[in-house]
Design goal:
Rossmann fold, alpha/beta
Length: 590
């Protein structure tokens, strides 16, 4: 499944310069420039206090009781200021930053404004229509050397560079806060000049449209301009935080727009610009969404200044995965069958693949900047809570967390990041109504590792695999590890089983003291010469496990493992733990 932001990213990239932006007050909200409704409530508050009212929890309720009608931005401005000049003066204080605002980072260009400016710089966006009075977008453009053509009045239209020749064309349909001809009241917003309508008609007819931060509720003339556009040459994407207004729903229907749920303008335009930039850097590689994700991660990892973008990338993928996992398709009620287990496993793998492959890249090429975010994500996905339904399907809910754990863990192991591996294994996991546990106890020694269930998968028709879960995951990672392994098929097995065995080593260290280990490994009894630990393919794959143990016994690797915290930081303990695992493997192969 391709998420909507990826889809619009491809459209913008493939149709360079053919999308226009329609921006409303929501785009400047992160700059602490208030929306029209927030200005309305503040004006109501100021009026109320001047009339002797006490502070109110909800000033709109006070206004309704006082004046027998809903507070209106247009009515208030018309009542408080009779001329455009006076209305401009009122708005000036809400938009113009003071020295204190600038020091506090308020009323200055946001990440959204800067991302849009970069899209303009690279030629992907050329036209912006906005209802905003502020100059944040203009300042962002000028910071990177672009002087936009700005249409804020009829006079500007007459002397402007033609639309086709402008590098950046900004149409401020309501004017500029420093211009006395700004449009504020309901009457002023009912109609535009003939010349402005002609420009808008051309834009909405010839360009695709990306709408952000605009409710469309108050702007009658702009609604009319959008709805009367005759053609649909390019798509319309309408971003939304929460429910759309009725007016917006009508426009979405009339333009057959695709609605995109967003957290905010900063995140949306940041991701859009990053995705477009990544595609440009890929220079014609297969533009599948996962490949775009992987390329973005590698690019962010290569530059320390992209730390924030990297964290946002991780956060976005985890949010998307979490939302998908909460979907009704993973409901655990109903009837159990082999087909249902197969379908559930396959679906979990499909939704987890992007994040899992991303985590493999982070483990292999990261230097620690991603560690907290990744561990936090794995812990949250693995944390359990009581649910109704079939036991098998409920236990499978933590399968995506196990996939992410193995992917990140193998990346860490490939990079020899042993300290981070130790921290990953020992990270705490919350469990509903039960004692909290750790990653190694919960996801390596996983309660979903039921041999009978996994042997039901269609790939195991004989139903007699010793380690069907481990075997299945190994086959999954054959397709997922090419992002960080030069020879996936040759390298994967030793990396996969090495990670499993490292989990076994960690488990032994957490559950057994050295005296216990010494007692079992020196026992002459074949059935009692080991302590139990979770085991995967290495339990029967002696050729690979011997290579892993040889590696662990190398002086430099042994020193690194002990320094990281494995084997209770003891060389003697490590040797006994290895011996116990060897004995356990021998017992399981018998």
């Amino acid at each position: 499944m391709i998420d909507p932001i990826t889809a619009v990213s491809f459209s913008v990239y493939e149709n360079k310069g053919t999308y226009a932006l329609l921006l409303g007050s929501g785009v400047s909200r992160a700059a602490n420039i208030p929306t029209g409704w927030e200005i309305t409530l503040d004006l109501v508050r100021r009026v109320g206090l001047l009339q002797g009212a006490n502070e109110q929890a909800d000033w709109s309720i006070w206004y309704q009781k006082k004046f027998n009608k809903e507070p209106s931005y247009s009515d208030l401005l018309a009542s408080l200021a009779s001329t455009p000049d006076q209305r401009r003066a009122i708005l000036h204080s809400y938009i113009e930053p003071t020295d204190l605002d600038i020091k506090a980072g308020r009323k200055i260009a946001t990440k959204a404004h800067k991302a849009i400016a970069r899209l303009v710089r690279d030629g992907f966006i050329r036209v912006v229509v906005t209802t905003n009075f502020d100059r944040l977008l203009e300042s962002s453009l000028r910071e990177i050397g672009i002087e936009p053509t700005i249409i804020k009045s009829v006079d500007d239209i007459e002397g402007a560079v033609p639309l086709t020749h402008a590098r950046c064309y900004i149409v401020k349909v309501h004017g500029d806060y420093l211009d006395t001809r700004i449009k504020n009241t309901e009457d002023e917003l009912k109609s535009y000049s003939k010349k402005l309508n002609l420009i808008l008609d051309r834009i909405f007819d010839e360009f695709g449209l990306i709408v952000c931060g605009w409710s469309s509720e108050w702007d009658e003339a702009l609604r009319s301009a959008v709805s009367r556009a005759p053609s649909r040459r390019y798509s319309t994407y309408w971003t939304a935080r929460g429910q759309l207004s009725d007016a917006a729903k009508d426009l979405v229907a009339s333009r057959a727009a695709r609605v995109i749920e967003i957290v905010g303008a900063d995140e949306f335009f940041g991701v859009l610009q990053s995705n477009v930039e990544t595609q440009a850097a890929m220079q014609g590689q297969d533009p599948r969404s996962i490949e775009l994700l992987i390329s973005s991660a590698k690019r962010f990892l290569a530059r320390s200044e992209d730390r924030i973008q990297l964290e946002e990338l991780i956060g976005r993928e985890i949010r998307l995965l979490s939302e998908q996992l909460d979907g009704s398709e993973f409901d655990a009620n109903g009837t159990l069958s082999d087909d249902r287990i197969q379908a559930t496993v396959s679906r979990y793998e499909a939704v987890a693949e992007p994040a899992a492959r991303l985590f493999g890249i982070l483990g292999r090429f990261g230097v620690g900047q991603e560690y907290k975010a990744v561990v936090h994500a794995i812990r949250n996905l693995a944390s359990s809570e009581s649910r109704s339904g079939l036991i098998v399907l409920n236990e499978l809910r933590s399968y995506p967390a196990r996939l992410l754990l193995f992917s990140y863990g193998m990346g860490l192991l490939k990079a020899e990041r042993y300290a981070d591996l130790f921290g990953l294994f020992s990270a705490a996991i919350s469990r509903d109504h039960r004692t909290d546990t750790t990653v190694v106890e919960s996801l390596v020694a996983w309660e979903g590792d039921n041999k009978d269930w996994w042997n039901r998968l269609a790939e195991f028709p004989e139903h007699n695999r010793k380690t069907p879960l481990s075997d299945h995951m190994h086959s999954v990672f054959e397709g997922w590890s090419g992002d960080y392994l030069v020879f996936p098929k040759k390298e994967l097995t030793i990396l996969f089983e090495g990670f499993e065995l490292l989990g076994s080593l960690m488990y032994i260290g957490m559950t057994n003291d050295e005296e216990t280990l010494d007692k079992v490994v020196t026992s002459s009894s074949f059935d009692r010469n080991y302590v139990w630990a979770p085991m995967g393919r290495a339990s029967w794959d002696g050729q690979t496990s011997r290579k892993v143990f040889e590696e662990w016994r190398r002086a430099d690797v042994q020193a690194a493992l002990i320094a990281a915290g494995f084997a209770r930081k003891s060389g003697a303990y490590l040797e006994k733990a290895i011996k116990s695992i060897e004995n356990l493997c021998g017992r399981l192969r018998w």
